[in-house]
Design brief:
The protein is an alpha+beta fold. It is built from 14 helices and eight strands. Strands 1, 4, 5, 6 and 8 form a five-stranded mixed beta sheet that branches. The protein has a three-stranded antiparallel beta sheet with strand order 3-2-7. Helix 6 packs across helix 10. It is elongated, with a radius of gyration of 25 Å.
Amino acid sequence: MLQQTTVATVAPRWRRFLERFPSVQALAAAPWAEVAEEWAGLGYYARARNLHACAQAVAARGGFPDTVEGLRALPGIGAYTAAAVGAIAFDRAVVPLDGNVERVTSRVEAVDEPLPGARPRLAALAQGWMAQAAAVARPADFVQALFDLGATICTPRKPACAICPWTGDCAGQRAGIAETLPRKVAKRARPVKAGVHFLLLDAQGRILLRRRPPSGLLGGMLGLPGTPWREEAWPLREALEHAPALLPWQALPGEARHGFTHFELRMTLLAAVAPPGLNAEGEWLTAEAASLALPGAMQRLMVLAEPVLAHGLADHGAAVASGAPRASLLGGVE
């Protein structure tokens, strides 16, 4: 959970997760839908899929592997996580390369090659410190001390060089460039993608949700039905082809935005009331239950839906199911 989420958010969720899945075996035996429900709102849902698959692999083999190579073979375990678990849990003589270790290493060794290209060299230099007798004798303590050095002393801005135990050996500090390291290649602007989603309410005020495909972004999570996400704008006529039913949909005001690692998502929301007897694919949940089950991106859409959920659909948007020419939801005209 802490790989991409703050401690303040994770602490109560971690306790709740352990109450529901108190062991690796319990997590392995749980249906994916229950794991997805417990992960809702934490983001980066591939972590939950990998965690579930990893628990199943560990349960199947009868316990955790205790080598870096064995850990690396588990689903969802990359080089950093395998090295961190190997060093801290099993005292393996390996140095994980996280942001803190990258920063400390680049400064101590005055590596001015920019990231991400410098990572192989930084990894090799950091691993070299494990050759010290004290580090080999206590790998877990050494690795955690290295993490803490970067987090509390060798900080991104205004490092506390005066109290750093390695200041005498820091080539970056001697050269007066420590605070400028590590260097990074300028990031390119993230592309923008567009999506249109549908809020379908039944007579009881419940919302139709559908489970997304198991792979891809938000894989296996519940969500509001909608179009795929793409860089081109969605004309209404084309967007309505993805609606759960042919109904007089109303466009709700506003736009929901959500940032993913590689792109920014902008979504609009159409709403309609299901007629009696409508057979629509998906699950009907109350607004409260939906808010608990939906991932963060879909929570943004629920904010747009709040007036409709509170007061009903009338007068909350413009009807878009007529035959007249209509403006595109995200630019252009049909």
